Structures are given as C-alpha cells and as structure tokens.
C-alpha cells in the first residue's frame, strides 16, 4: 500500500514538474517577444529623434540685435557672432556666444537666445559711465574700470585718481561719500589717493577737502557734521578745508583773508 502511494506521489511530482517547465518556457517566449518589441520601439524612437534633430539643427544664418545702445556698432556684434554662424540652431553654444559678445567695448551684459527657425537674438546692455579714471579711463556705476583709452569722455563726470590697482578702493570711497555729501547740499567732483596713501576730495566750486592717511572716515564725518554748513554758506570764499588734525579743522580762504583755524588741535603725523 505504501508502495502504491509512493508511485502515485512520484507521478504527481513528475506531472507538476512538466507543467512548471512548460509554463516557464511559455513565459520566457512571451517575454522575449516583449523585449524585442520594446527594443524595436526604442530604436524607432531614437531614429525619429535623430531625424528631427537633423532637420531642426540647421546652420545659424540670421542674427537679430535688440536693446538700447549708442556706442556699440552693429558691425561689432556681427563680427562677434560670425564664428558661430556654422553652428546648428540646436547645437550652438549660447554661453560661448554670449561671452564673445560681452568682450566688445562698452558691452556690459548680453543676453543670447535662439530665434526660430535658424537664428539667434542678442540683447545688449551698455555700460553706463559714472566716473573718469585718470586721463582716459571710464568707470561704470558699480565702480568698475571698463574702458581705458577712451576717445570721448563726458566732461561732467567726476574725476577719480589713484595708483594703479587702487581703482576699486577709490571708487568705493566715491560711491559711499557722494550721497552723504549730496544730502548736505554738496556735490563731490573729485576723489584722489596719492602714492603715499593720503586722500583728498574736491567738492562744490573747486573746494579741496584734505583727509590725509589716517582716520579717513572719522575725518569725513567731522567735515560733514561740522564744516559742511560753513562751506555751504560761504563756498565761493573757501579754497580748502584741512581735517588732518586730532580734532577740528582749518580753512583756507580764496580771498585776501588769512587762513583761519576752526577748533583745530595739533596736526597729526600723516599731514
């Protein structure tokens, strides 16, 4: 009896094994067809994508220029864009093109974008000159020296001077001081830093303000707080204001009057 039961179990196991094997073969055959179908679809998609790219990536042939600018000539932009004309509409390197345009004199910023179907649009923002540097340099509103050897310099721009490499330092003092003086009715027209590190300002009707090398900010505060009302009231008579004292200041008059000290103490060593 036990032998017959074993035979029946063996037949059952063999039947189950044959069923499992046939089911697995069928599943693999189905999956194989699915994989092949998926590969075919992916291949077709890649071919379509390549074809669309080939059709759309036509060579750049049109350049549109926008923005408000006066000193940048369109021919300069054309020359900057010329090396990129052989590039495709989709493959053109817009960052490299933007960098090439921004190398043009007077160009502060450039925005470059594709323009369907085969062009690019370049929008220019020019530097705004805010001050002169030395004999023929120009600085923008951020205090950056953007042009040397300028052929035309607006005469109304303030004059900034200093040793080579001090442009940022001089521009910083100008940008910080200009609104403070304007608030007390005085216009800052000149900032100078000499090779020894001494500062001198020119305000109003060619009045010199001597700040020296030490405690520049505190001396400037003293000028604005104490001396500026007198200078504003009698500006046409004042030649200079010297703040290189431990406290107070001295005034030089442009008329026949002698030099007058206003609460001045001893002159500091940096005078």
Architecture overview:
The radius of gyration is 39 Å and the shape is elongated. The chain contains 5 helices and 13 strands. A 10-stranded mixed β-sheet has the order 6-5-4-7-8-9-10-11-12-13, with helices on one face. It has a 3-stranded mixed β-sheet with strand order 1-3-2. The protein is of the alpha/beta class and 271 residues long.
Termini Cα gap:
126 Å
Q: How many H/I helical runs?
A: 5
How many beta-strand elements?
A: 13
CATH class of the largest domain: Alpha Beta
**Major beta sheet, specifics?**
10 strands, mixed
Radius of gyration, taken over Cα atoms and rounded to an integer in Å: 39 Å
CATH homologous superfamily grouping of the largest domain: Cell division protein FtsQ/DivIB
Poorly predicted runs: 1-7, 46-54
> What is the architecture of the largest domain at the second tier of CATH?
3-Layer(aba) Sandwich
Task: Detail the topology: elements first, then pairings.
Layout: H1 2-56, E1 62-66, H2 74-81, H3 94-102, E2 107-115, E3 119-126, E4 129-133, E5 137-140, E6 145-147, E7 159-161, H4 167-183, E8 188-193, E9 199-203, E10 207-212, H5 216-233, E11 238-242, E12 249-253, E13 260-262
Parallel strand pairs: 1-3, 4-7, 7-8, 10-11
Antiparallel strand pairs: 2-3, 4-5, 5-6, 8-9, 9-10, 11-12, 12-13
């Amino acid at each position: 009896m036990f032998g017959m039961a074993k035979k029946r179990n063996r037949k059952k196991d063999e039947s189950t094994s044959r069923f499992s094997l046939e089911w697995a073969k069928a599943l693999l055959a189905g999956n194989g067809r699915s994989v092949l179908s998926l590969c075919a679809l992916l291949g077709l998609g890649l071919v379509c994508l390549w074809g669309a790219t080939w059709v759309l990536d036509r060579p750049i042939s049109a350049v549109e220029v926008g923005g408000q600018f006066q000193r940048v000539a369109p021919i300069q932009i054309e020359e900057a864009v010329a090396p990129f004309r052989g590039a495709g509409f989709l493959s053109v390197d817009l960052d490299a093109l933007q960098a090439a345009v921004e190398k043009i004199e007077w160009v502060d910023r450039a925005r470059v974008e594709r323009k369907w179907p085969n062009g690019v649009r370049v929008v220019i923002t020019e530097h705004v000159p805010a001050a002169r540097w030395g004999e023929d340099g120009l600085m923008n509103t951020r205090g950056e020296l953007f042009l040397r050897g300028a052929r035309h310099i607006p005469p109304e721009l303030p004059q900034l001077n200093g040793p080579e490499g001090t442009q940022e330092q001089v521009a910083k003092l100008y940008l910080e001081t200009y609104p403070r003086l304007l608030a007390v009715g005085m216009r800052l027209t000149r900032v100078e830093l000499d090779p020894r590190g001494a500062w001198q300002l020119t305000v109003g009707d060619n009045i010199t303000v001597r700040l020296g090398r030490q405690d520049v900010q505190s001396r400037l505060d003293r000028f604005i707080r104490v001396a500026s009302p007198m200078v504003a009231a009698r500006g046409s008579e004042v030649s200079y204001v010297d703040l290189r004292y431990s406290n107070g200041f001295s005034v030089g008059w442009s008329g026949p009057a002698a030099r007058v000290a206003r609460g001045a103490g001893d002159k500091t060593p940096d005078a």
